[in-house]
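Late entry, zinc ion complex.
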Amino acid sequence: MARNFRIAPSILSANFAKLGDEVDKVLRAGADIVHFDVMDNHYVPNLTIGPLVCEALKKHGVTAPIDVHLMVKPVDRIIPDFAKAGATYITFHPEASEHVDRTIALIRECGCKPGLVFNPATPLDVLEYTLDKLVMVLLMSVNPGFGGQKFIPYVLDKARKVRQMIDARGLDVSLEIDGGVGPANIREVAQAGVDTFVAGSAVFGAAKDSDPNRYDTVIGALRAELAKA
Ligand code: DX5
Ligand code: ZN
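Prediction complete; structure with ligand written out below:
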């Protein structure tokens, strides 16, 4: 399958005390996108990072796209802040916004690329009206809130469905997956039609802090599997 595959390490599993350095290293090792998980201890039972950290990464010199995954409710208030902080993509969960169409428009007005995120058990019905307005569809293959969980296999079926919808309409929309992805399953996920792969613990948990090339091995392993897809 000749898709343009992209690897998006989730900094949720990075060493936050050395974040700029971690991001530099993972990008140097060949990652394409920085996946930035925003959690509010309300929509999901965990609390992470906000626009200040996004801005700090930009000021540090990160030029790769920043993929802001909002696990917050409500979403609209924080979108302009992330746009100002340098977000490239902003994705949100439809059930976290009272007005999904308005939120998509707001992300575009702010100059960012909008995407919708679906939890494992959330139906895809809103895509019927929104797919042509999106740049990305993100399928959760774990329940959101934590890194290091196990991939939920039924999401592969969902990926095939979304791929079919995108292709049937001839749209240029990315299909991204998030949760439990690593060298052991990335090939199967790619074969289901996914083109953008979030990996947190598989990348940042892969090797010892003392190994200077620690991310080359794992990103290389992910790419090698993708080459066989
Ligand atoms: C979970 C986050 C993910 C998380 C994935 O709510 O959205 O991005 O970091 O972590 P892994 O790859 O460890 O499952
Ligand atoms: Zn995420």
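The chain has a mean pLDDT of 96. Will revisit in the morning.
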